[in-house]
Amino acid sequence: MPLTSERVLEALRTVRDPDLGKDLVTLGMVKRHDVEGPKVLITVELTTPACPMKDRIRNDIEQAVKDAARETAHQVDSIEVEFTADVRRPNEKTQDGDSPLPGVRQIIAVGAGKGGVGKSTIATNLAVGLARHGARVGLLDGDIYGPSLPTMLGLEDVQVVAHGSMLLPFEVHGIKAMSIGKLVEPDKALIWRGPMAHGAFKQLALQTEWDELDYLIVDLPPGTGDVPLTLAQLLPLTGAVVVCTPQQVAQDDARRAVRMFESLGVEILGIIENMSYFVGDDGKEYDLFGRGGAELLAKTMDLHYLGGIPITQNLRINSDRGTPIANWDDPELAVALDAMVTQTASRISVVSIQGKFQMPTISVS
Length: 365
Ligand code: ADP
Known about the structure:
alpha/beta; GMP Synthetase, Chain A, domain 3; Rossmann fold; 3-stranded mixed β-sheet; 14 strands; 35% helix; disordered C terminus
């Protein structure tokens, strides 16, 4: 009995996406399942190009097809598994024009309990990291009181270009970016009061021509002020990432940020520990701030831990120079960044597929 395309599909029903917890067929991910003589050709459409489970899925597919081939006594010489990706929207709701940014599939906030923990650094590298995997990514500098993206992205010498009433985002390092820091004097941004902050953020988010994006990463101001509230009311957020350093005092601030997002009805995607540890010239890792503090916080709050980024001179230098892409030239840093990027992408997919997403109900106490 030859191995048929139908029998291959049946075999793929036994392969689960480890993150999404369902089989590839049920998830609608199998786009091709052909048998051409001794060759089996499979195409799987992932929910993110930054999927951390590709190797495992490939292995499981190969095993399932080999088992099916053995059962049918069909000679299979090669199993070619091709991966494509289509980032899905969080739910049906945003598909029918509900969102003021209909071309944007996933909107992710990056917040922190206080300033200086590396929130903008994480937002920048998350955006650039997702783009490196092939996603279409936007980065919105919502930190209107202290925008640092003009420096971190090297935007000092580029000019703002308007298209009618819309601003064109800056296309740099494989992403599209917009920052209030390019529209007003940085000193002015610092003194904005509530309603002005609300208006400025709204304009920045809605009057930028983002076009089609898989992910829009929003770098929020630190703390629990007006901008997160505006953002949650304005846009259908998939969730928020909270950046934290390992020390106890930083954890207390991060806990407050988590509570704020929860009170806004925003799903917490997870916690990222920045300045987790320091790697010396001797190759030894030093736990300057108490590595693991944020991971512990995640555990006690029943949240996902999305990875730790070390303190490295390269990260600081590349942030100051506006060359985030160069962070991937440092092998150790690249591994840590990529783990954070893929874990976050995976959580975004899981939250979207689970349909946990809902428009926020505002209940600020
Ligand atoms: P926040 O947005 O939380 O205020 P930033 O992202 O602006 O913090 O980071 C503050 C400073 O710390 C910047 O100069 C940045 O380059 C540096 N920095 C952040 N994270 C790291 C790190 N892991 N290693 C080295 N320097 C870092």
